[in-house]
TrEMBL record:
GO molecular function, one term: ubiquitin-like modifier activating enzyme activity
Record organism: Eurystomus gularis
Superkingdom classification of source: Eukaryota
The protein's name in its UniProt record: SAE1 enzyme
């Protein structure tokens, strides 16, 4: 489900329904130079391609080359990952009075507060 230009109450209601039924939910909007995008993908599984790390000279035990791992772009492995996304209600319900939240506030873009 993709929504744009909707009220906050409607966004929360539709996201709640989607979250309960394992339906992927996207919303976004633009206000002049500022905008937001939110995705609630529920439990999302994906495969990521990782480049294998190999030593340059496995026989050499000392020196700068033995300590530096090299990426072998010819050899890759597939790694399955799982991410659990939060609902829109949870994302907007941050308590900004705690110490942990105050530290995160410095790294939070002002665009986050467009929905507030």
């Amino acid at each position: 489900v993709c929504l744009t230009g909707c009220s906050r109450d409607l966004l929360l209601k539709i996201d709640h329904i989607c979250h309960q039924n394992s339906v992927k939910f996207f919303t976004g909007d633009v206000f002049g130079y500022h905008g937001y995008m939110f995705a609630d993908l529920g439990e999302h599984e994906f495969v990521e391609e990782k480049t294998k790390v190999a030593k340059v000279n496995p026989g050499v035990e000392d020196g700068p080359d033995s300590k530096r791992a090299k990426l072998d772009s010819a050899e890759t492995t597939m790694v399955k990952k799982r991410v659990v996304f939060c609902s829109l209600k949870e994302a907007l319900a941050v308590d900004w009075s705690g110490e942990k939240a105050k530290a995160a506030l410095k790294r939070t873009t002002p665009d986050y507060f467009l929905l507030q």
